[in-house]
Amino acid sequence: MKRVIKYIVFALIAALFIGTFVFLFKNSRPQKIEYQEFTADYGNVARTTVVTGKIEPRNEVNIKPQINGIISELYKEAGQQVKEGEVIAKLRVIPDMNSLSSAQSRVRLAEINLKQAKTNYEREKALYDKNLVSDEEYDQVLQAYEQAKEEKNAAQESLEVIRDGVSKSNATGSSTLVRSTITGLILDIPVKVGNSVIQANTMNDGTTVATVANMSDLIFDGNIDETEVGTLVEGMPMKISIGAIADYSTQAALEYISPKAVENNGANQFEIKAAVKADGGHTIRSGYSANAEIVLEQADSVLVIPESALEFEGMDTFVYLKGADGTFTKSPVTTGLSDGLNIEIRSGLAKGDVVRGSIIIQDIVKK
Fold it and tell me: Can you give the pTM of this predicted structure?
């Protein structure tokens, strides 16, 4: 057993010795230093930015009931198209007891007044037929009778609306029927049959029965940093990419730049909106995350080289220019627009000039 342990120890020492020798040998081999070479040529340079945001319909409307009640029927569901005025849901009215009591009291009072007005009218008419009263007196009594009948009808309609949500004379415009106010796609119906709903008033926003939007008119909504917003102008083209749709992009036109910044994670950003030109061949859903690529500056047909070929000394910028003898000499240049990879050279180089790039180190193999 001791002999086996001794052999293992010897093997480990030998492996360590050989590994050290190989490492030192490799580091001692001569290396050849070469440089990448780039040729100055004409090209296009653009400085772009990418804005994250989402796709939204321009016109999205929350449909709310005109009265308080309980959902008794739903005629539509999310994802269906709906036309303006089409019924989405039906309500069963829950009348306010104070309002109901007042309406009933108004009907009873109107009936009393009508009964008295009718009696007065019949008495006056009998006298009028015998030429015992003037036309003026008869007309006044007749007018009072007609007004009492109208008041009775109005009180009865008001009671029916409060109690049933609809009157007999206006059944087609029933407030118990929740209708779409626009033509579009139903994005959401957040209520179910049996849910209580309330109408909008000064105290609350009311219950949303359905959300409807025109999905043929979409916008991109995003935020851009304050350092870049100064270069934007309305009408600028944008390229919109949607993450949920692979290999899909579409064009958009910038139409809104917020005049006021909002703070987002410690940075001041400005909201922007752009009209999206959907092609109709893809289904774009509301709320899709999207990226907008905006060209902030662009220079076409200018002399460019890779930005990695530049060298810096203080405020000076230069390149190593290859001469006729193959050697590189330091040459100052004036730069322009950069896209992060290539940069515009405004002076100091000509088309076809070769400049030195990054270092390439190669081992020299001895033959």
Answer: 0.62
